[in-house]
Design a protein that fits this description.
18% strand, 6-stranded mixed β-sheet, 2 domains, alpha/beta
C-alpha cells in the first residue's frame, strides 16, 4: 500500500470523515471540499447519528461522484480506541472495495496533544499496513481481484508539510511491512516452513534489509554442546538450525557508539510443535506451525531496524527445530545437558520451547549484551492469565519493563507484567537434574517457564516476552485471521527510540 502525506485533497479519493460527538461537521476540511449538493445530505446524516447515538460505518455515494466514509469515534476516546479505529478504516474500506482513501491526521491526535503528530502519523501508517494484510498466497485469486487498499493519503491541516511527520509515516510503514512479513512466515504451514526454510528466510531478510546472517548446522551445535536444541530436535527428520543475525552499525562505522553493548533478541523457532511424546490434543495442534512466531518476530524486527538505519547494535538469535514424536524422540524423564553445563530434567516434552531457549540465552552472553530480550509463544498459562489482548512480560529491571510497556501502549502491541520472584525457583528445581522443565503443580506455568529461563541468564539485564496470548488475531481488532505479528511493532519502536 502506498501511504503519503499531503495538505491537498485529490478528487478521486474516498474521504474518511471521523464523526465525533458534538462535531461541527461544517468545520471539517473534508466537508468544505465537498460539492455543494452533498453538504446538506452529509449534515443530515451526522445530525441523525448524533441524535440516535448510533454511530456506524456509512458509505455515502451521493450526487457529484463524491464518496465519503463516516467512522464514529468518541471525542474523548482513549488512544487504544483510536488505534482500533485506524485499523477499522482500512477494514471497512476493504469490505467496500475502496482503493484510495484520504484520512485526516488531526482527527486522530488525542486531546491535549498527548502524543506528538509525528508519532500519530507513524502509528497510523503502521496500523494501516497491519489492517491491509491477509495471507492469500495459497488461495486462488477471485475474478474481481483481492480487495486490498492501494493508496492511503494522510491529510494534514498544516500549510507546511513537516519533515518529522513524513519520517514518522516512513517508519510506521516499514514497521508495518516487516510485521506483515513475520505474519506471513508464521502463517506458512509447517510442512513448508521447516527449520531450514526459516533459516533461509532469515538469510534472505538480512540480504534485503542489511544485516549479517550466520546459520549454525547440527555439527556446530554439537561442538558447542547445545544439548537442549539437539535434544528437542532429535525426533524429527528435519534437522535443527541455529540462526545468528548481526546488525552492528557502530562496528561498521555507520553510526552509534562503538563501545555500546548490543541488545540481543532471542526468538523461539519451533516450526511445528506436536508436543513430542506428550502429544498435543487435536483441538490445538493444527495451529502449531505458528510456534515459531517469536523467531519470525526477531528476524523481522532486525529487518525493520536495519531498513530504518537505527544507530544501535542489535543481535538476533533463533534456535529452529521441529518437535516431533518418533522412535528417536527425547523422552519424559530424560536429562539434557545444555551449553551452560546445567542439566534439564524433562518432565514434559511439550515444554520444549524453554529447553531450546536455554541454549540460546547462554549463547547470547558471548556478545556481552547490555540487554537480552527473548520472544516466545511459550505457555497457554499466559493466555489463561491475560486473555488474548496482551502478551506477558517478565523483567529483571523494572525501568526496562516500564519503557517496553510504554512502547507497547504507543503502537498498540500491548504487554502486561507478571512476577519474576526467587520464591518460584523451588517450583522448577529438578530431582535428578539441575532444573525441571515443568512445575510441581499445574498452576502458574507462565511464571514457572520464565523462572526456568532466568536460570540461564541470571546476572544480566533480561526481559522475557511470552507472546502466546497474542499468537493469533481475535475478533474485533480488525486484523486478518491467523498470526498477529506480536512484538515486531513493540520491539521495533522500543529499539528505535
Amino acid at each position: 500500500m502506498r501511504i503519503t502525506l499531503s495538505n491537498f485533497l485529490p478528487k478521486d479519493v474516498v474521504r474518511v470523515i471521523v464523526v465525533k460527538s458534538n462535531i461541527d461537521i461544517a468545520a471539517h476540511p473534508f466537508f468544505k471540499d465537498t460539492p455543494r449538493e452533498n453538504k446538506k445530505y452529509l449534515e443530515a446524516i451526522v445530525k441523525r447519528l448524533e441524535k440516535e447515538r448510533e454511530f456506524a460505518d456509512i458509505v455515502l455515494l451521493p450526487l457529484g461522484g463524491m464518496y465519503a466514509l463516516l467512522i464514529s469515534l468518541d471525542t474523548n476516546a482513549a488512544w487504544r480506541r483510536m488505534i482500533l479505529t485506524m485499523r477499522k478504516v482500512i477494514a471497512v474500506a476493504r469490505k467496500e472495495r475502496m482503493r484510495k482513501l484520504a484520512v485526516r491526521l488531526e482527527d486522530f491526535i488525542p486531546r491535549g496533544d498527548a502524543i506528538a503528530p509525528e508519532i500519530v502519523a507513524e502509528v497510523m501508517a503502521l496500523q494501516f499496513e497491519l489492517a491491509n494484510f491477509d495471507f492469500v498466497e495459497h488461495k486462488t485469486p477471485p475474478k474481481e481481484g483481492w480487495s486490498f487498499v492501494q493508496d492511503a493519503l494522510i491529510y494534514t491541516d498544516e500549510k507546511r508539510i513537516h519533515t518529522d511527520i513524513k519520517k514518522g509515516i516512513e517508519r510506521g510503514k516499514i514497521i508495518g511491512e516487516e510485521t506483515n512479513k513475520a505474519r506471513h512466515l508464521s502463517n506458512t504451514p509447517g510442512g513448508i516452513m521447516t527449520p531450514r526454510k526459516l533459516a533461509d528466510a532469515a538469510a534472505r531478510a538480512g540480504k534485503i534489509s542489511g544485516f549479517k546472517t550466520k546459520i549454525l548446522q547440527e555439527t556446530e551445535m554439537r561442538k558447542l554442546a547445545m544439548g537442549g536444541v539437539i535434544g528437542v530436535s532429535q525426533g524429527s527428520s528435519e534437522r535443527p538450525r541455529f540462526i545468528v543475525m548481526e546488525y552492528l552499525p557502530a562496528q561498521a562505522g555507520s553510526g552509534g557508539k562503538k563501545s555500546e553493548k548490543p541488545v540481543v533478541l532471542v526468538g523461539k523457532g519451533v516450526t511445528f510443535d506436536t508436543g513430542g511424546l506428550n502429544l498435543k490434543p487435536t483441538e490445538h495442534i493444527y495451529e502449531m506451525h505458528m510456534d515459531m512466531s517469536g523467531g519470525a518476530a526477531v528476524i523481522h524486527t532486525l529487518a525493520a531496524l536495519a531498513r530504518m538505519k537505527v544507530k544501535r547494535n542489535v543481535v538476533g538469535l533463533v534456535p529452529a527445530v521441529e518437535n516431533m514424536p518418533s522412535g528417536s524422540s527425547y523422552h519424559p524423564g530424560d536429562l539434557l545437558r545444555t551449553m551452560s553445563g546445567k542439566t534439564i530434567e524433562v518432565l514434559n516434552t511439550d515444554a520444549e520451547g524453554r529447553i531450546i531457549l536455554a541454549d540460546a540465552l547462554h549463547y547470547a552472553k558471548r556478545y556481552d549484551p547490555g540487554l537480552v530480550i527473548d520472544v516466545a509463544t511459550l505457555t497457554g498459562s499466559a493466555m489463561a492469565a491475560l486473555g488474548q489482548r496482551a502478551s506477558a512480560i517478565f523483567a529483571t529491571h523494572e525501568t526496562t519493563s516500564k519503557r517496553i510497556r510504554e512502547s507497547g501502549e504507543t503502537v498498540g502491541d500491548f504487554v502486561w507484567p507478571l512476577p519474576l520472584w526467587e520464591e518460584y525457583e523451588e517450583e522448577i528445581r529438578g530431582t535428578f537434574g539441575d532444573v525441571a522443565n515443568a512445575g510441581k503443580t499445574r498452576y502458574g506455568d507462565a511464571v514457572n517457564a520464565a523462572v526456568f529461563l532466568w536460570q540461564f541468564i541470571k546476572g544480566w539485564n533480561w526481559v522475557h516476552l511470552d507472546i502466546a496470548p497474542r499468537m493469533t488475531a481475535i475478533e474485533g481488532e480488525f486484523l486478518a485471521k491467523g498470526a498477529a505479528g506480536a512484538s515486531v511493532p513493540l520491539l521495533s519502536y522500543f529499539l528505535s527510540q
